[in-house]
Every structure is written in structure tokens, then in C-alpha cells.
Amino acid sequence: MLTGETMHASASIVAPRPARVEIVVPVYNEEADLESSICRLRSYLDAEFPFESVVTIADNASTDATLEIATRLSCQLSGVRVLHLDAKGRGRALRAAWSRSDAEVVAYMDVDLSTDLAALLPLVAPLLSGHSDVAIGSRLARGSRVVRGPKREVISRIYNAILRLVLHNRFTDAQCGFKAMRAEDARSLLPAVLDNEWFFDTELLVLAERNGLRIHEVPVDWSDDPDSRVDIVKTAVADLKGVWRLVRSFWSGGADLGELAHRRRSGEFFELARFASVGMASTIAYFGLFLLLRPYLDRYLANFVALLACLLANLATQFRLSFWQRRGISPQLLVAWTWATLVISLACTDLGLFVAQLAAPRSILVQLTGLLVGSAWAGFVRFVTLRAVSFRRELESRMRHPSSSAAAHYSLAPTPALTPEPGALTR
């Protein structure tokens, strides 16, 4: 067996054309199922898969005969190789294999092949065509067919519901063991992913989505492995800790990876459209609240109360939807900007009310028109100045840290290096 961190090929194998897809199968003490699963996977790829592919068995410090079986398979089967690591962790295995891959697309699947292999082509095709950047199998998407116990089903749904509630992600299934992504994007994301265990999947997907990568979901046929040795309680606790770490990191200005900026599809026009749509909704709520308060309060006091309530909700939404990408906007700056914006908005709308009072003192319609004009001007000022502040903060950050990596901006703790774990690789 050849050792070291560099990929080697055994002398008995003639290297084929570079694989377009590399499929990593992380394993730990899988001597019972490894041979049958790898033979089945390789047979499917040779008979049904239209792209050049290679299967990498990533052994996570197995203590049984897993490594010996994997080594034998790599000698017997063309397009199978082995990566051995001295430490456990699915995320660690994927980091090591993906970071050294020379394929266009890197993927992984569980050794039990719980996912129907027919879903492999729909998984990688959008990535090879350039339609998407990340593809995931989803057991919760419409059209999927899943066979598993009620306990795992409930835990999975609760976990993914927590993710959507706390992290506001749009993908449906974070932990299905069936994923793929473009290798260049993997190399950009991996340094920022801190977890080396089961939370690796979730963290990778959340970072990808927050940096504008397009995630394609594939409904899968999936059967639960009754022999799974995953400690559900321990894994769930670790995942919740990981979610909390991400929340703290995002609020400290993390998750913006400069290497992926060129892949963001939301330009200024779409950002303005999102800003305007949220502003329109809050303006409608603001008018409604003003009309409710107007019979009981002075018009200027009613304007203040309605404006304050809707402005706080508006700014929280705008910050998340339109400006989360802009590095360097801290919660403290957002709070200060909220109060400054209140002053700007109050001045504009009170001026609109004053003009309306001069024009038609008793007309509610004229007062609403004055509020509308004042709100429009206030919204325009908010949009222009907040963008200017955010870009300035980002520029200052880059000037202070001209050589810092994306991971340094992201993490709250030292970031794992991109260099794979020391190990052995045969082919």
C-alpha cells in the first residue's frame, strides 16, 4: 500500500481518462457489507452510468477487516480505490477525499446503499451541465418513497424543521447520505466547514446556500438500514450544538466566502426587488395600523407608533433577505442603524402628514397619500445608505485583512486545514 497525502496509482492498473464523477463511500467497521455494496455500485456504474467515474472507499480507522477488504477490492475492480484515515468521522473522510479529487463532481453515498442507485444520474447531471452547484437526495421532498421506522422519521422531520426555523434554509433534507457538488465549489467551502462528524452535511449545505450556490433536490427511494450503528441521541445533541454555533457565527458576520462571490445570481436588480417587496408588505401593515390608531391618537403619535412597530419588523427582514451577504454588518451596527432609520422615516412621513394637513385637513385619503410619499422617500434613503454602509464595511474589512482566508472571516474557532488527513491511498 502506498502511503502519504498524494494520490498514487498501483502499477498493475492503467490510469483511465480522468473521472468526471468521484463517489466517496465512507466506512467504519463495515466488513460484513462492504464487498457486496461496492461490487453492486461498481457494476451499476459500468452498466448504467454514462460518465467516467471512480469509487473511493474512505476508511475511518476501522478496527475490523474493512481496510483489508477495501484494499483487495481496489486491486480486483477497475475504478475503485481506497483512502485510509487514522481517525473516525464521516465529515473528516469526505473532507480528505473531496479535497484531493481531480474529478469535476464529487459525491458520496452510504455504504448500505439505502438510496436507490437509479437516483445517481439525476443527482449529478445538473452539476455536470452547469444547471446547479450542489445536489442532494431528499427523503422529505414530494415524490420520494421512504421505508424507515417511525422513530427515525419523527427525529428527521423535527431536525429539519428546527433548521428551517432557526437557519431559514430552503432545502428539505440535510442529512440524507446521498449528496454531490461541483469539485471547485467543494474546495471553496471545505475550509469553512468546522465539523468532522455527522453535522458536516448540514454545515456544508447551509454555507453553500448562504453563499448563493444553487441547490438541486432529488426525491429518492430510500430504505432504512436496520443494522445502523449511529447513536441517535448523541448525534442529535451534537447537531443542535452545531446549529447554535452556526447561529452565533452568522450573527458575528460570518458565512460570506469571497471565493464564491462570482457565483451569486442575485444582482442589484433582484436585491432591489426583494427590498421593495418586503417594503411594500410592511407599508401595507403600516397603513392598516395607522388607520386603526388614528381615531384614538393624534395623527403624529399614531404615525410614530405604527412606524416603530412596522419598521422594526421591516429592518429585521431586510437584513436577513437583502444584506446578509455583506460582510462586516454587526448586530450593534444594525441596532444603531435601526434608530437612525426611525428618525429618517419619522421625519419623511411627518412631513408628508404636515403637507397633507395643509392641503386637506379632514381627508384621511390625503393623509394616507402623504404617508405613502414620505414612506417611499424614507425607503429609498434606507436602501441607498444601507448598501453604501455595507459595502464600505466590507472594503474596510478586506483592507485590514488582505490575505485572510474566507474561513477566518467565517469561523469562531480555528478552521481545519484543507490539506487531507494523513492516510494511505491505493487504486
SSE map:
Layout: E1 21-27, H1 34-48, E2 53-60, H2 66-76, E3 80-85, H3 90-99, E4 105-109, H4 120-128, E5 134-138, E6 145-147, H5 150-167, E7 178-182, H6 183-189, H7 200-210, E8 215-219, E9 221-223, H8 232-251, H9 268-293, H10 299-321, H11 331-359, H12 364-400, H13 406-410, E10 423-426
Parallel strand pairs: 1-2, 1-4, 2-3, 5-8, 6-9
Antiparallel strand pairs: 3-10, 4-7, 5-7
Helix pairs in contact: 1-2, 5-8, 9-10, 9-12, 10-11, 11-12
- The CATH class of the largest domain turns out to be Alpha Beta
Task: Give the overall shape.
Answer: elongated
Helix content: 40-55%
CATH topology call of the largest domain: Spore Coat Polysaccharide Biosynthesis Protein SpsA, Chain A
Which regions have little confidence, pLDDT < 50, spanning 5+ residues? Answer: 1-16, 261-270, 322-328, 393-424
Which architecture of the largest domain does the CATH hierarchy give at level 2? Alpha-Beta Complex
Main β sheet profile: 8 strands, mixed
Compute the CA-based radius of gyration. 27 Å
State the assembly state of the protein chains.
single chain
CATH superfamily of the largest domain: Spore Coat Polysaccharide Biosynthesis Protein SpsA, Chain A
- The computed structural class is alpha/beta
Number of strands: 10
* Count of DSSP H/I helices: 13
Strand content: 5-15%
